[in-house]
């Protein structure tokens, strides 16, 4: 199966471990990120303010509107996307840019986990 650009393939296994299904879907962004602060690809600069994406506004929106687990997963997925667009970027710098801020004391910790 050939994948279309911008689509992700998800693999889900049934509880019995025998059934595996694959589906494709469009990337889903948290509802709090529907504004002008979107990444300009392939540079990954913010379309709204010109800062490196995720800019301070996106980080603030994610911290206030998303649980910490979902926020970290979303940031990791976006970093994975950026790695494809920025193959010469330093991996440590990309980690710092996309994920380090999700582990700060300012990041909300969920008691349900």
Helix share bin: 25-40%
The radius of gyration computed from the alpha-carbon positions, rounded to a whole number of angstroms, is: 16 Å
Strand content: 5-15%
Distance between the termini: 36 Å
Low-pLDDT runs: 1-14, 19-28, 108-113
Beta strands, count: 4
> Quick one: biggest sheet?
2 strands, antiparallel
Global morphology: globular
Order of helices and strands: EEEEHHH
Question: Number of helical segments?
Answer: 3
Mean pLDDT: 75
- Largest beta sheet: strand ordering: 1-2
Instruction: Provide the structure class.
Output: alpha+beta
Structure description:
The protein has a domain of 75 residues. 32% of the residues lie in helices and 14% in strands. The strands form 2 sheets. Strands 1-2 form a two-stranded antiparallel ribbon. A two-stranded antiparallel sheet has the order 3-4. The radius of gyration is 16 Å and the shape is globular.
Compact overview of the structure:
This protein has helices at 56-65, 68-85, 91-98; strands at residues 8-13, 20-25, 39-40, 45-46.
């Amino acid at each position: 199966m050939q994948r279309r650009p911008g689509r992700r393939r998800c693999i889900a296994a049934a509880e019995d471990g025998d059934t595996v299904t694959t589906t494709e879907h469009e990337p889903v962004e948290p509802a709090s990120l529907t504004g002008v602060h979107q990444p300009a690809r392939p540079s990954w600069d913010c379309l709204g303010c010109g800062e490196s994406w995720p800019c301070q506004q996106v980080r603030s929106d994610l911290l206030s509107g998303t649980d910490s687990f979902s926020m970290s997963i979303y940031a990791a997925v976006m970093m994975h996307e950026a790695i494809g667009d920025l193959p010469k970027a330093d991996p440590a710098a990309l980690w710092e840019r996309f994920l380090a801020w999700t582990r700060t004391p300012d990041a909300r910790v969920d008691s349900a986990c």
